[in-house]
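residues and backbone:
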Amino acid sequence: MLSRLSRTPPPPLAMAARVLPRSFHPTAASAMIVSTNSHLILPPSPTVAHISFGKSLSIIGRKFHYGLNCKEDRRWSVAGWSGKVFASQREYRKSRKRPLKKKEKELELSVNICIEEQLPDDPEIVDISEMLRLNVPMAMKFAFDNLKDSDYQTRDRAINDVGCFESVELSVLLCNDEFICELNKDWRDVDSPTDVLSMSQHIPELELPILMLGDIVISVETAARQAEERGHSLLDEIRILLVHGLLHLLGFDHEISDEAEAEMEKEEELLLKSLGWKGKGLIQSAYDAEAAGSSPLENIDRKKEGSLRFYRPKFSYIFCDMDGTLLNSKSQISSVTAEALREATSRGVKVVIATGKTRSAVITVLKSVGLAGKDGIVSEVSPGVFVQGLLVYGRQGREISRTNLDPIVCREACLYSLEHKVPLAAFSEDRILTLFHHPLVDSLHTIYNEPKAEIIPSVEQLLTGTDIQKVIFFDTVEGVSSTLRPYWTEAIGDNASVVQAQPDILEIVPPGTSKGSGVKILLDHLGVSPKEIMAIGDGENDVEMLELASLGVALSNGSEKAKAVADVIGASNDDNGAADAIYRYAF
């Protein structure tokens, strides 16, 4: 978990980077001048920083070409520059001028602080990267001082006297678990995230004037977990990981023997104390965690609650079904699923409901977990796809599409219901109409949170002056599959379609319509491409929506038709499958 990498560096790869659009004070430039007698020279203020973007000092052009085995399309964010800041640039008054002393040989510390592209622009991470621009050179200076008189027996002495070099270069990369996991797998054959990796670039045989220490890669995501467990700040934990990684690059390796571990642990504590930084060294912290029975890093599942701050969204929109997807088998939304939706929206992803339910029913359900209304994911002024895509609401919640069922089909369905005593419910916007009382019709209200059904005494009255979007029949699972579905599939011909969201309910809808077609109407209205959306569903009525989306996720409790067209099959709705899909695939 905490060892130095020792593989042969790969050949250079082409990479792109972006400079953080943020101005830094010149005195925070990451290159500092240290005299060889170990007195740190901090750049005075005011001063002029000469910023160099040359490849020789850039993590883009050199550092990770040789240090990391990255994919060619990986992009980097540069949060620090290798600027040269000389104390001699300060202006003195003539009356204070003193005789010039012989100029000492100066050692330039060139530090690059980088943020991996998939990390969002999190204010805390950006602030930490700025702080590291000052912290890293200080840590290097103290570490170099400690090497001079050290009598460690296990340290690799390939780097012994930094005074023989003109400059020292080091890169520090902040990333998330997903990125460091890829590195850990490529370089150490360990398929799990870790907290810090060190990659040495120093080749003593070349006798270069520049000491290329290498690269320290820190997972901010893992660091955040460890900081919480150990009771200090994220900056404190990153500093601890920085010290650990730096000592690896200077030849310490706690994995080779107990003696080596004891020596590196001692040096960690000494360096942290010298710098005045909080916390214990990483080796001691690991022992404390083990003694307390904490779970090892390898057993922590990535991208769970609270971790989305370390990932950029892959999609602009997530379209979610309700029954069987966001709702469990008790027609309730769990706190885990609610939190996943809340966290996704807080990260800038728009969650849109696409369901067979009425809008009022969805508002009722999500209101119970604080997700309805102005700051929620559904309201009377938000977009949504309802009643199997037959009612679509766009910006400001205005209706942009309505498709009604053929009145002749409605009449035939009502007459069938009366003749065979099969309970029926007709959906008319936010109203539910039926012809006689039945417990299964009542369940629409008591279980599914639909408006309470209005009993209409006759077929004529039910149909007069009323637009019906769909009708549904209730029966047993066997009754639906063996009787209702075969009969109505043949009876309606091309005048309507049958679809099922639940195994004990048959729905009759206008021909050529689907939840997917409703989603497409809404996307066109919003100017959004299907490539920008992820969809989560479970039923036969979700098939077209799952096919339309860039990533379609069918939950394991779903129909075989839905699972057949999905890109991914997730956990069940009773196992918070929608939440898991959001954490796992949306970021």
DSSP finds 17 helices and 23 strands in the chain. The two ends are 25 Å apart (CA to CA).
